[in-house]
Amino acid sequence: MPTPATDSEFSFELLVCRWAELGWPPANGDAPGSDDTPVIVSRQLGTKKRRWDTIVIECDPEGLVARREFGDRTIDGDLLPVVRHAPAEWAYYRDALPDPGYPWRYVREAIHRAAARGLVEKRKNGNRIEIRRKRPYPEWVSRIIAIENKPDLDASAAAALSDQLEHDVDTALADEVWLATGRTGERVEPALLRQFPVEAGVLTFDFSAGTHVDAATVDWLPSALDPTSDGERFDGAEKARRRRLIAERAYGKGWRSFTETTRPDCRWFELERAGRGVVPTCAAKGRCQHETECSSRCGSFEPEPPQWRTNGWPIDGGPGQGLRRLLERRRERARKR
Ligand code: SF4
User: Fold this and answer.
1) d(Cα 97, Cα 84) in Å, to the nearest integer?
2) 0.85 cut: is pTM over it?
3) What are the percentages of helix, strand and coil residues in the chain, rounded to 5?
């Protein structure tokens, strides 16, 4: 009988996220596992061309405290230039902000949005809009680690992955790239490892005892990539901009946001405990569902019965809403650690 961790890539990915939250960086030989570096973990983020399964943002502790002052939501790509360049003293926005390379009216819209969220201040001076920062936007990201998850690493999966990892190494958007795979009892086949770029690290996981920090073994250490170098595809400034955007999206999204894309309000949706983590399971299918199949298009979808929402269930909105809130509270806690 497979454990919830091993019967779908989706649940494996969620457990890798939970493990990273508890135990990043991985123990390596005599070197201990987690240190005091705060981390933000997210999933399914990247660029248009490349999505990473798991993202670990290692944060500068003071920078993260300062980032929290801007609230829990992502500061998106339109807002970031306004927030980062808003001056300490009132100034006409066109004098203060860099030329966006697109019409200024979009920048004005972003200023109104940023002011409505309390990220900057704005005022009218005649017919000119002036802006002023409330606080400096911090450099809060120390390193970005990309992890590709593949619980069953057979030859064809390894071949497909090697191209993706090559791409990651080439672009160097992340500081490190890792492959996470299930532990089979044997070490990962050297023949499979040979297909990957040497810069990519390899972690093998055994979640049978739950998501403990020692669930992972480092099989191959990664080399540090140089995200400040001009890679093939982006120059240094564009790379820095993309890294900030990825980090901001990770900060706002976390990794528990799957409740927004799946159907916890379905009567068959359950959460199953796996050590110090939980994974969604489907009672109708008798297994972990895939993220994409758990939608209102699913043939087995049934809304939770109305009486669940009134019949002694202590939380308004029924178990589905309760699960959403539980995971949202955990997401909050993870951000504030
Ligand atoms: S029956 Fe379909 S919608 Fe309901 S929990 Fe299972 S996979 Fe999700």
Assistant:
1) 9
2) yes
3) 35, 20, 40
| CA atoms of 195 and 165, how far apart (whole Å) | 10
Q: Is 146 in the pocket of ligand 1 (CB under 6 A)?
A: no
CA 57 to chain centre: 8
DSSP 40: E
Residue 40 CA neighbour count, 13 Å, CB half? 31
Q: For a pocket test of ligand 1, which of 260, 293, 324 has the largest count of ligand atoms closer than 8 A to its C-beta?
A: 293
Residue 10 pLDDT greater than 80, yes or no: yes
CA of 299 to the centre of ligand 1 (A): 8
Distance CA 25, CA 81 (A): 31
Instruction: In whole angstroms, give the CA distance from residue 198 to residue 310.
Output: 57
**Distance between first and last Cα of the chain:** 36
Which tens digit of pLDDT belongs to each residue from 279-318? 899 999 999 898 899 998 999 999 988 777 665 554 455 5
Residue 52 vs residues 41, 95, 190, 239, 294: alpha-carbon distances, Å: 12, 38, 24, 16, 21
Protein residue whose Cα sits closest to atom 6 of ligand 1:
282
